[in-house]
Please model this.
Amino acid sequence: MRRALAAGGYRGDVLFENLELLRTVAARGGTVERAKDLFVERRPPSARHFRSQRVRQAYDSQAQPWRLAAELALLPALLLQARAPGGYLVWAAAAVMVAERGRRVAGGRQVFAPTVALWAPAWVAERAITAWVALAWRAAGGVPYAGGRLRHAASSMRALRRAEHRGTPGADRPIC
Model:
C-alpha cells in the first residue's frame, strides 16, 4: 500500500479497484504476495443485488485480455455444441472438475462445501452471456455504476509503467 501512496495513489475511476491497486504497486517496483490460504467468509447478497452484479463482474474481465477472450469464446462454442447436445455433459463435467481443483487449493476443502463445484456449469453459462453484455456496455460508453458509468475495468501494466516513466505517476489519475 505504501508504494501505491508513494506513486501518488491509484486510479479510483475503474471498476476492478483491487486489480488496479495490485498493478499499481507492481508497476512501481513493489512486490505483490498472494495469500492463497487466506479465506474470507462471504455472505450472499439479496437476489436483486446478486443479479445487478452479474454484468459488472463480467466487465472486470476486460482488464484481463486472455480471460476476456476465453469468456467471449464460451457463447459461440456453447451455441455450436447445440448440434450435438450430449456434448453439454462434457462441458459441465469439465467445469465441475476445474472448479473442484480450485476448491482444493491451499486447504479450501476445509472451507468450501463439496457441493460448491457443482455450480460451475451454471456460472460458465452465465458468464458466456454476461461477457458479451459487458462488451456491449463498453461500446456504449461504460458499465453503469452508482448513477454513472465506468469505462475502464483497470489500467494495464503497460499504461502504469508508462506513467511511471513519464515521472508523473498518479498526476493524471483520481487518487484513492
About this structure: Strands lie at 143-145, 148-150.
